[in-house]
TrEMBL record, chain A:
Record's protein name: Transcription initiation factor IIA subunit 2
Upper lineage: Eukaryota, Viridiplantae, Streptophyta, Embryophyta, Tracheophyta
Species, as recorded: Brassica napus (Rape)
Record keywords, A-Z: Nucleus, Transcription, Transcription regulation
GO biological process assignments: RNA polymerase II preinitiation complex assembly
SUPFAM superfamilies for this protein: Transcription factor IIA (TFIIA), alpha-helical domain, Transcription factor IIA (TFIIA), beta-barrel domain
GO molecular function: RNA polymerase II general transcription initiation factor activity; TBP-class protein binding
Stated role: TFIIA is a component of the transcription machinery of RNA polymerase II and plays an important role in transcriptional activation.
Subcellular location: Nucleus
TrEMBL record, chain B:
Family: Belongs to the TFIIA subunit 1 family.
Sorted UniProt keywords: Nucleus, Transcription
GO cellular component terms given for this protein: transcription factor TFIIA complex
Keyword Manganese on entry: no
UniProt cross-references to SMART domains, sorted A to Z: TFIIA
Spans annotated as Disordered: 163-210
Main location: nucleus
Pfam family, one: TFIIA
Organism: Brassica campestris (Field mustard)
PANTHER family noted in UniProt: TRANSCRIPTION INITIATION FACTOR IIA SUBUNIT 1 (PTHR12694)
Protein name: Transcription factor IIA alpha/beta subunit
Length: 106, 358
């Protein structure tokens, strides 16, 4: 089953990747097993976001760059405003990377 | 159900650990201790990053601690799990004790070298002790005073060997017998298989060309090349090391985003192509490239932004899209199941609606 690897770039994904990297470098863990852990992380993260999170967010901003390649949209926004439930966040620049959700069901 | 970001992360960690536990424990995996270490380091890093708030609630998964754990984990090697990863030291490889009587499937075998030779490699019709014992006996003999008499009954050869000729001086041991200095010696162990007539070989391709000598009572095989070949590497010839790029293809095949994290194995001498560390990975098509094509003004502006943003980790949203539409210069997108890292905070969302003006 294919997995989305994009969540590996999140904080939790990067922490896991660094941990696995250290353990492989020290020989504690085999690279194959590390890959299996990462794949399982992809699945667990996707499933957790689907089932455990109920937050709705609204994003507005100036689109500086857009890119669609390999079924992945990449947007770079400037002066973006995020409305998360009852609070708001403003950032001067943010990158949005989005994979096609239909790919997972194929 | 966890509702906070930290709670969701804890759930993910526990879920991942519980699902990979079987891989760690069965089939000769590294064991529960390594899994625990992995989880511990992972959680520590997340706390240091500020996305996980302790204390961590462990009520979700209770890890079973097997009573006879270590003895049942490593099915291939009936040995203590911790020692499996110890670098063979001089004491382990060449203990001061005299030649021991090898026992079938003895645990000591694994302490000499960490190569799982597999007793099925070479059957020993002449002995009843198994080939593992033979290898062990070979190493012991190399360390202690060499005695052909003791060796003969266990000589394990695939070719017919001459009966005793009374010559008990091993001429071949001089060159190859080098006491290990305590560093990783997995690669040296191959050079020490000078007796017994078989070479436990773990890797698929051939190593350096063996040269067989029938000298006295001993059937010895020496390797033409002096170079120490790492055990993990298959080297078809002694002179031409060949390693093609990063190790796994699994990553590339499973690629679903342009950004690939290619896993590198342990650093080896021959591995020239190394992918950058994870935190150095940029997007596959960096914005700067596109800026060069479009406008120069924005290029400068973006560079300033990037340099200023370096200190705060770049604000990033990772999600899946359901639909992206555009009407003239107005873009709308429906996102779902996303992780946002903005203003040094991690925010998860189930649905997001974006409206951008280009």
């Amino acid at each position: 089953m294919a997995t989305f690897e994009l969540y590996r770039r999140s904080t939790i994904g990067m922490c896991l990747t660094e941990t696995l990297d250290e353990m492989v470098q020290s020989g504690t863990l085999s690279p194959e097993l590390a890959i299996q852990v990462l794949v399982q992380f992809d699945k667990s993260m996707t499933e957790a976001l689907e089932s455990q999170v109920k937050t709705k967010v609204s994003i507005k901003g100036h689109l500086h760059t857009y890119r669609f390649c390999d079924n992945v949209w990449t947007f770079i926004l400037q002066d973006a405003m995020f409305k998360i439930d009852d609070r708001q966040e403003n950032v001067s620049r943010v990158k949005i990377v989005a994979c096609d959700s239909k790919l997972l069901t194929q | 159900m966890a509702t906070t970001t930290s709670g969701v992360y804890i759930h993910v960690i526990e879920d991942v650990v519980s699902k990979v536990r079987e891989e760690f424990i069965n089939n000769g995996g590294p064991g529960e201790s390594v899994l625990s270490e992995l989880q511990g380091i992972w959680e520590t890093k997340m706390m240091q990053a500020g996305v996980l708030s302790g204390p961590i609630d462990r009520s979700l998964v209770q890890r079973p601690t097997p009573g006879g754990g270590p003895l049942t984990h490593d099915l291939n090697v009936p040995y203590e799990g911790t020692e499996e990863y110890e670098t063979p030291t001089a004491e382990m490889l060449f203990p001061p004790t005299p030649l021991q009587t090898p026992l079938p499937g003895t645990a000591d075998n694994s302490s000499l070298y960490n190569i799982p030779t597999g007793s099925s490699d070479y059957n020993t019709p002449g002995t009843e002790n198994g080939s593992n014992a033979d290898t062990e006996s070979m190493l012991f003999i190399a360390a202690t005073a060499f005695s052909m008499d003791k060796l003969n009954p266990r000589l394990d050869v695939n070719v017919a060997y001459e009966p005793e000729r009374g010559n008990s001086n091993p001429q071949f041991t001089q060159d190859l017998f080098v006491p290990p200095s305590g560093k990783r010696k997995r690669d040296d162990s191959s050079a020490q298989y000078q007796n017994g007539g078989y070479i436990p070989q773990q890797d698929g391709a051939r190593d350096a060309m063996p040269k067989a000598n029938l000298d006295g009572n001993a059937f010895c095989i020496t390797f033409v090349s002096d170079r120490k070949v790492p055990r993990d590497f298959t080297c078809s010839s002694s002179n031409i090391p060949q390693v093609d790029g990063p190790m796994p293809d699994a990553y590339d095949e499973m690629l679903s985003t342009p950004n690939i994290y290619s896993y590198q194995g342990p650093a080896e001498d021959f591995n020239d192509a190394r992918t950058p560390a994870p935190n150095e990975i940029q997007t596959s098509t960096p914005v700067a490239v596109q800026n060069d094509i479009i406008e120069d003004d924005d290029d400068d502006e973006l560079d300033d932004l990037e340099s200023g943003e370096d200190m705060n980790t770049q604000h990033l949203v990772l999600a899946q899209f359901d639909k992206v539409t555009r009407t003239k210069s107005r873009w709308k997108c429906n996102l779902k199941n996303g992780i946002m890292h903005i203003n040094d905070k991690d925010i998860l969302f189930n649905k997001a609606l974006g409206e951008f003006d280009f």
